[in-house]
Design goal:
This protein has two domains: 139 residues, Nucleotidyltransferase, domain 5, CATH 3.30.420; 172 residues, Nucleotidyltransferase, domain 5 (2-Layer Sandwich), CATH 3.30.420.40. Helix content is 43%, strand content 20%. It contains ten helices and ten strands. It has a five-stranded mixed β-sheet with strand order 3-2-1-4-5, with helices on both faces. A five-stranded mixed β-sheet has the order 8-7-6-9-10, with helices on both faces. The two termini are 24 Å apart.
């Protein structure tokens, strides 16, 4: 099945063409129009600006994706699009564009959950991967540990009760005066500092497998304010290293707790924060010690992209999950992100 997919849940306009079948998982093209430079002026994503930028980019990006894939609309078997969760205005651009193409081209329309898409990125890098497995999905908007019972059935095991881990990274980066987005620079600085320089509270909630990243974020802010009042300059490397070490230890602690309870054999690490080198190393070490098969999503597929939406779209299509012209975008997916 040849799938044309769209992703516009936040500040990346993405279009991809992916070939999927029982034996084939191949990216023919994956194009992304980033808005980072625009939103950096404001220190974060401005929803209205993001929506407008999606509108300006999506048509030309679709043409580019088809051209680079070497296909035409006649070759496309189905159209997949992120329908939830995300910024409502941004989602609506992708959903309405996809609905228009599906109607004009007479192609089936497949709605895809963005968070499920992150997990599905692993299918493209690990052809042998098959459900069931556990997935740790860590991004700017979502952090959850999920049992993927089947490619379309996700059962939440743990979640963040407040900030997502990526959001916490961005806010700490802002405290340090780092430009938006701060994730990559936090990653670099963490490798230069003393991870034991600052004592910070764990993000692992005792007696639960859930996370809380609000407390550790606030602790960094309080530390920064305290140093300022004392007339002491912050050492960005030490703050980044201490914060990163605490976050990674918190995540590994909950992964270990889940392992003791569920004894999972395969773990997928996905989402934008899965590109963090320290988190990748920490989870890799944990998996190696436990004998768990670890599928680390390649860094180029960790961030928002349409190839992952196409991959999940294929499994949704196999399960018969199609939509008609009444499809609407949803900022959230109800009580659960799934």
């Amino acid at each position: 099945m040849l799938i044309l997919a769209f992703e516009s849940s936040c500040d990346e306009t993405a279009v991809a063409v992916v070939e999927m079948s029982e034996s084939t998982r191949r990216i023919l093209s994956s194009e992304v129009a980033t808005q980072v430079a625009t939103h950096a002026l404001y220190g974060g994503v401005v929803p209205e600006i993001a929506s407008r930028a999606h509108t300006e980019a999506i048509s030309s990006l679709t043409k580019l994706a088809l051209t680079n894939a070497g296909v035409t609309r006649d070759d496309i078997d189905a159209i997949a699009v992120t329908a939830s969760p995300g910024l409502i205005g941004a989602l609506l651009v992708g959903v309405n564009f996809a609905k228009g193409l599906a109607s004009a081209w007479k192609k089936p329309l497949i709605p895809v959950n963005h968070v499920k898409g992150h997990a599905a990125a692993a299918y493209l890098a690990f052809p042998e991967l098959d459900a069931p497995f556990f997935a740790l999905i860590a991004s700017g908007g979502h952090t959850s540990l999920t049992y993927v019972k089947s490619p379309t059935e996700f059962i939440p095991v743990a979640r963040t009760r407040d900030d997502a881990v990526g959001e916490a990274f961005d806010k700490v980066a802002r405290v340090l005066g780092l430009p938006y987005p701060g994730g990559a620079e936090m990653d670099r600085l963490a490798g230069l500092g003393d991870p034991e320089a600052i004592k910070l509270p764990s993000a692992a909630i005792d007696g639960s497998l859930d996370f809380s990243f609000s407390g550790i974020k606030t602790a960094v802010l309080n530390y920064a304010n305290g140093q300022k009042q004392k007339g002491i300059d912050l050492v960005p490397e030490d703050v980044a290293a201490s914060f990163t070490r605490t976050v990674t230890r918190s995540i590994v602690k909950q992964l270990a707790g889940a392992y003791e309870e569920y004894h999972y054999e395969t773990l997928v690490l996905a989402g934008g924060v899965a590109a963090n080198s320290h988190l990748r190393d920490a989870v890799s070490n944990f998996a190696r010690k436990k004998g768990i098969k670890l599928c680390l999503t390649p860094k180029n597929l960790c961030g928002d992209n349409a190839a992952m939406i196409a991959a999940q779209g294929y499994f949704e299509a196999v399960a018969g999950h199609f939509a008609d012209a009444s499809l609407n975008a949803k900022a959230t997916s109800g009580k659960s992100v799934f």
